[in-house]
Amino acid sequence: QVQLVESGGGSVQSGGSLRLSCAASGYNYGRMAWFRQAPGAEREGVAAIDSGGSTTYANSVKGRFTISQDNAKNTLYLQMNSLKPEDTAMYYCAARAASRGAYYNRLARTNYNYWGQGTQVTVSS
């Protein structure tokens, strides 16, 4: 059974930094991503990483966010720098089932099977 548990959210001022973590159990295939959802908005892909370490970012976070994974610890990270008020959202960790193909849109929520409960990030101006 796959379980994803996020941590590291909080409240920061604009320009600040946070690092989110996602501890995965029952999953070690490395096809993971971070999504976020603001109130009244769709859940959107923020950053993704595949089993080979290749990364994909949404245009809105390129140059500010960095996704990484520690395979030994089965943990996914999202380093968020230069945070803006528009980054305020619930952030979710997601993982793609190993049985699904290796070629997919890495920032599309329908391509992920497992989800964490989310961690709140609030950025004040």
The ordered H/E elements are EEEEEEEEEEE
Percentage of residues in strands: over 45%
Largest sheet entry: 7 strands, mixed
Total number of strands: 11
Beginning-to-end CA distance, first to last residue: 41 Å
How many helices in DSSP terms?
A: 0
Radius of gyration (Å): 13 Å
Helix-strand makeup class: mainly beta
Structure explained in plain terms:
It is a single chain. This protein is an all-beta fold and 125 residues long. The chain is built from no helices and eleven strands. Strands 2, 4, 5, 6, 9, 10 and 11 form a seven-stranded mixed β-sheet that branches. A four-stranded antiparallel β-sheet has the order 1-3-8-7, with no helix packed on it.
